[in-house]
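Lab notebook: predicted structure, single chain.

Context: the supervisor wants predicted structures on file for every construct in the current expression panel, including those that have not yet been purified. This is the next one on the list. No modifications to the sequence; it matches the entry in the shared construct table.
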Amino acid sequence: MSYGHSVRFADRSTPPHAFTLVMIAAITPLTMNMFLPSLPAMTVYFNTTEGRMGLAVSLFLAANAVLQIMIGPLSDWFGRRPVLIGSLVIYAAATLGCIYATTVETFLFFRLCQAVVASGIVLSRAIIRDVVPMEQAASTLGWVTMGVSLVPMVAPAIGGLLDGWFGWRSSFWLMAGFGFVLLGMVLLDLGETLQSRQARFSQQFRGYPALLTSYRFWGYAFSAACASGAFFAYVGGAPFLAVKYFGLEPATMGALFGFCAVGYLIGNGFSGAFSTRIGINRMVLWGAIITMTGLCAHLLLFLAGMHHPILFFAFFTFVGLGNGLVMPNANAGIVSVRPDLAGSASGLGGALMIGSGAALSALSATMLGVSTNPLPLLIIMLCSAVSGFLAILLVIWRTRQLGVG
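Prediction complete. Output recorded below exactly as produced.
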């Protein structure tokens, strides 16, 4: 398959339509972001603590990371289509389980099962690598991710409105509906894009040492992990700050979450337009600089006493913008190190990224359960951003010294 051929929707003999790819990638951020404004209300409903309810974010991310390690090799062995279809069936059932849960333990179990939606983000990247030449992969990922970035922009706002109108379960009903619709789209539009499959599943795991000892793979993965770590720390802590520190309603909170998503949208637009021309490393570098600089300014303003909620959330636009530059370019590098192991590379790279996000999300939720001061959250995010900046500097320096390899 090649995007040089005409693409027709609902024709599995051609590459999947761009809209289908966007929807496949979008289901993961939808599941991550839709219910965030409901976390305080869910804490009250299940009669639990903020830290425990925050596990709905951090456990989901941790399971997501583990599953990405499995999904990549499974898709390289069985193919992209069957793995994605099976994942969507499990996801829909788990979402219904979340809706009907009566205890926090039951809810967290089904929330954990929802993490199978990791297949969406893993396989969207692998499918693009299957059908798009390496030099165009970052640009294509940028355009697809730009479409996906609309989801975290509108999902919290919609979730906040639904929570106010119908209660917290309404967000999960919307997730379930999206899952069933996407399953139908995949059945109609997505043919198998993997051209050659490994004969044995174990061969895929034997490819991991080659990836982990690859200089380029590790550099790109760590840069992306630090960028996503800053974002997920925000996701894990900001909902509780919005309610406990700023006293915001769920609908207002959801709308303010859109600042970060707007930055992400713009960043992905730049990636789609300029990655091929400017190059992956420079795009990642500029994304890291923007994230780090924005968080430094944010921290200094907060320490200076500027605590207005709109200003506080508006500055996270820089985090979104930086992530929009870093993620598609770093991911393009990850899956292009070993094209024969694109699914495995996507899964392992995604696991590193999401694993760091789970740890920082849990840390921020725990710290904010003890103190409602936003300062710890800003410090955690800034440390992660600085680490990502140092990682890409080392990548660039070593590339100049040793060449690509």
